[in-house]
Amino acid sequence: MKDRADLWRAAGEVAERDAVAALATVARQRGSLPMATDAKMLVVADGRRWGTVGGGCVEADVTEQALGAARSGTPVFVRHTLNADIAGDIGLSCGGTAVFFLEPLIPRMAELYRAIGNAIARRTPATVVTGTDWSRGPRKTAVVDGMSLMVGDALPPPAEARRTPYVDERGGVFVEPVSRVPRVLIFGAGHVGAEIARVAAAVGFHVVIGDDRAEFANAERVPWAHEVVVDRFQHMLDGMAFDEDDFVLATTRGHSYDAYIVERTAASRACYVGMLGSRRKRKVIWRALEGQGVPRAALERVRSPIGLEIGADTPAEIAVSVVAELIQLRRLGGSSPLREAERGQA
Questions:
Q1: At what angle do helices 255-265 and 279-291 cross, to 10 degrees?
Q2: What is the pTM of this model?
Q3: 80 and 96, same domain (yes or no)
Q4: What are phi and psi for residue 266, nearest 5 degrees?
Q5: Are residues 339 and 195 in the same domain?
Q6: Strands 246-250 and 126-131, sheet pairing
Q7: How many degrees, rounded to 5, is the angle at CA 253 between CA 280 and CA 277?
Q8: Are 284 and 255 within 8 A, CB to CB?
Q9: What would the mean pLDDT of 325-332 be, rounded to a whole number?
Q10: Residues 38 and 112 in one domain
Q11: Range 170-190 average pLDDT
Q12: How many separate domains does the chain show?
């Protein structure tokens, strides 16, 4: 996720300058809250901010408390509760409890912060373990590519494997798993493909977009993409391997190109393969692909039309509907209930 990578890299720069600053990370949460399970924020006394822990009054309070921790040089846990009465008073439709881990930025951790940011940018998984008691000095370890970067005394390894941050009470550590950023591969950089790239990047996907036309696939036209490829679609596919955190989209200018991309990716390990177009287009292409020997089971997992049914018409609206479906699969897993209902009526 570009924003998360930027946050960690910024932490490295801020720490190196020995500014008064802190990291605030969700450690536990219960109920319905306006924040992600791995929400994280970097705050600096001069007013600069990276990331968010939900906004509103909670974020304002956490910011103040985080800067308090920075000035004291001591990490703390703070609890915030949004109950029904408070939610009604401030106009929020949520309620629950969140515990945040607030830790001061330390100059000698600058290299470690940057290493995590670079790992995120490279889509390399990592683990960050921070001691919750700094009475004998700051303690933090990052494990990237099997290598450990350590500040302070050695910390015990995580007691269990989880996907979200958690507190290991027995070990006295706060554990942050940094998962590999899911990747969206968009074949076709036309108007719709470019808009999908923009929205997907904004919500935290690693975006790769490719086209055989340099006037469409270039960094000036799609500056939000992490990777832009100009090549024949066959060559692009020849050089790619797909994993279970990949989302493949065929959004080219021609049926034959889309059909080829589906043919090459339908049976891949990608968690999502989708093709832009109508039900009629899908029917025609599926019939042709089956005739070429593509297994029906592989084609049945391909989403087409792509996107949630919201009446989208313009490229930007279509992009919103498509990325909404990707988010749904990423966050909730399984198949889209709306898509399955639609298929049942097809």
A1: 60
A2: 0.84
A3: yes
A4: -60, -40
A5: yes
A6: unpaired
A7: 25
A8: yes
A9: 94
A10: yes
A11: 96
A12: 2
Q: Cα dist. 92→34, 69, 87, 230 in Å?
A: 9, 28, 5, 46
Let me know whether 158 and 133 are in one domain: yes
Q: What is the CATH number of the domain that holds 302?
A: 3.40.50.720
Asked if residue 280 and residue 169 are part of one domain, the reply reads no
Range of the domain at 91: 2-178
Alpha-carbon distance of 124 to 46, in angstroms, equals 32
Question: What's the Cα-to-Cα distance from 201 to each of 53, 153, 174, 284, 336, rounded to whole Å?
Answer: 19, 38, 29, 32, 21
Per-residue pLDDT band at 3 (split at 50, 70, 90) = confident
User: In the chain, which residue ranges form alpha helices assigned H by DSSP?
Assistant: 2-16, 56-72, 84-90, 110-121, 191-202, 233-238, 255-265, 279-291, 296-300, 315-332, 337-345
- Answer yes or no: do 209 and 328 share one domain: yes
The whole-number average pLDDT for the span 111-123 is 96
pLDDT in tens, 56-68: 888 999 999 999 9
Tokens at residue 17, please? 């300058």
**200 phi/psi in degrees, rounded to 5:** -65, -40
